[in-house]
């Protein structure tokens, strides 16, 4: 019986992967005797089944946190929905089937919120994400595998994509504000500023994903989000960013964190203002190398 624990983290070089790495390596999240391996696309292209199998054979993981996904900006998604659909379906199928074949006991994946049909601009990526729940349910029904998924709301933090056109809303706004201040130009925020969002700081998400890997035993996904009352408008977020450093999308997608609260009533989320301040400081300190 293999009693070692080896956790393979796909997508380890991205926003969420870097946060988990910090939680595990810097905050004592790693327990004695555990091995954690953080991977990027340079280690293997997970679209390719042969490379996926070779990777699993090399590390023989007992657990997998599967974060890797092909994600692009709005324009790229609109142009290539088929590519995003096929690549993400392949990545998830390769990882899950290889994990099953090699006896991996737990896989934790990342899905996304879906109520109603996906937005037309990125329906390929979105449908691939939606299949995750179906795949996990099928692996449980047919083989008894306890593979599951988390559903985060809008993630931000160090190592995010800060690109003004293509980045996530908060990080794009941080870059925009920083640039306007640096150049002494006016800050123009498109849209009305009224859409509301639940933001989750990547390090909070990292802590919660490690908890899910260790403790959460359901197959049904769990929403990882701040409470509904902690939703803020884009306008409020800009004000916080503006104070610290000094396109309307989908209008509302409120997620309930009631299930999370039932499991972890005492989990403390980093206050939004503090999390934004830390992200701004990271961005300024790492301006040369940040994705932007
Ligand atoms: P990032 O875009 O920051 O990182 C993506 C990661 O996937 C990178 O490590 C990248 O490697 C890797 N990757 C991409 N393509 C491949 C490939 N073909 N083979 C192997 N690795 C690959 O993503 P996030 O950290 O933001 O997101 C992590 C997960 O969470 C994703 O599944 C995403 O869909 C999901 N999610 C994210 C949300 C958010 O708000 N950020 C919200 C809901 C879900 P490399 O660095 O080498 O390119």
Automatic annotation (TrEMBL):
Gene3D superfamilies from the UniProt entry: NAD(P)-binding Rossmann-like Domain, UDP-galactose 4-epimerase, domain 1
Protein name, entry field: GDP-L-fucose synthase
SUPFAM superfamilies, A to Z: NAD(P)-binding Rossmann-fold domains
Transmembrane segments: none
Keywords for the protein's UniProt record, in alphabetical order: Isomerase, NADP, Oxidoreductase
Native organism: Myripristis murdjan (pinecone soldierfish)
Molecular function per GO: GDP-L-fucose synthase activity; isomerase activity
Residue ranges of every copy of the NAD-dependent epimerase/dehydratase domain listed in the record: 7-220
InterPro entries in the record: Epimerase_deHydtase, GDP_fucose/colitose_synth, NAD(P)-bd_dom_sf
Function in brief: Catalyzes the two-step NADP-dependent conversion of GDP-4-dehydro-6-deoxy-D-mannose to GDP-fucose, involving an epimerase and a reductase reaction.
Family label: Belongs to the NAD(P)-dependent epimerase/dehydratase family. Fucose synthase subfamily.
Pathway(s) this gene product operates in, as recorded in its UniProt entry: Nucleotide-sugar biosynthesis; GDP-L-fucose biosynthesis via de novo pathway; GDP-L-fucose from GDP-alpha-D-mannose: step 2/2
EC number(s) from the headed UniProt entry: 1.1.1.271
Enzyme class label: oxidoreductase
Pfam families linked to this entry: Epimerase
Top-level lineage group: Eukaryota
Phylogenetic lineage: Eukaryota, Metazoa, Chordata, Craniata, Vertebrata
UniProt GO BP: 'de novo' GDP-L-fucose biosynthetic process
């Amino acid at each position: 019986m293999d009693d070692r624990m080896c956790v393979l983290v796909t997508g380890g070089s991205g926003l969420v992967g870097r946060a988990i790495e910090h939680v595990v390596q810097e905050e004592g999240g790693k327990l004695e005797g555990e091995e954690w391996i953080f991977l990027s696309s340079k280690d293997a292209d997970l679209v390719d089944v042969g490379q996926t199998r070779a990777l699993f054979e090399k590390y023989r993981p007992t657990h997998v946190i599967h974060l890797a996904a092909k994600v692009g900006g709005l324009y790229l998604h609109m142009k290539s929905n088929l590519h995003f659909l096929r690549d993400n379906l392949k990545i998830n199928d390769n990882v899950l089937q290889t994990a099953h074949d090699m006896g991996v006991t737990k896989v934790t994946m990342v899905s996304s919120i879906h109520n109603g049909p996906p937005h037309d601009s990125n329906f390929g990526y979105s449908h691939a994400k939606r299949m995750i729940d179906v795949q996990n349910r099928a692996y449980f029904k047919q083989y008894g595998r306890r593979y599951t998924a988390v559903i985060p709301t809008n993630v931000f933090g160090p190592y995010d994509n800060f690109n003004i056109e293509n980045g996530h809303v908060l990080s794009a706004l941080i870059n925009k504000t920083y640039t306007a201040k640096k150049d002494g130009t006016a800050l123009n925020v498109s849209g009305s500023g009224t859409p509301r969002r639940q933001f989750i700081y990547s390090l909070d998400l990292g802590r919660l994903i490690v908890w899910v890997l260790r403790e959460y035993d359901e197959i049904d996904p769990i929403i990882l989000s701040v409470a509904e009352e902690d939703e803020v408008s884009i306008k409020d977020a800009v004000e916080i960013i503006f104070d610290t450093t000094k396109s309307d999308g989908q209008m509302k997608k409120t997620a309930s964190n009631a299930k999370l609260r039932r499991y972890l009533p005492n989990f403390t989320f980093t206050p939004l203002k503090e999390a934004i301040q830390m992200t701004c400081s990271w961005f300024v300190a790492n301006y040369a190398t940040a994705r932007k």
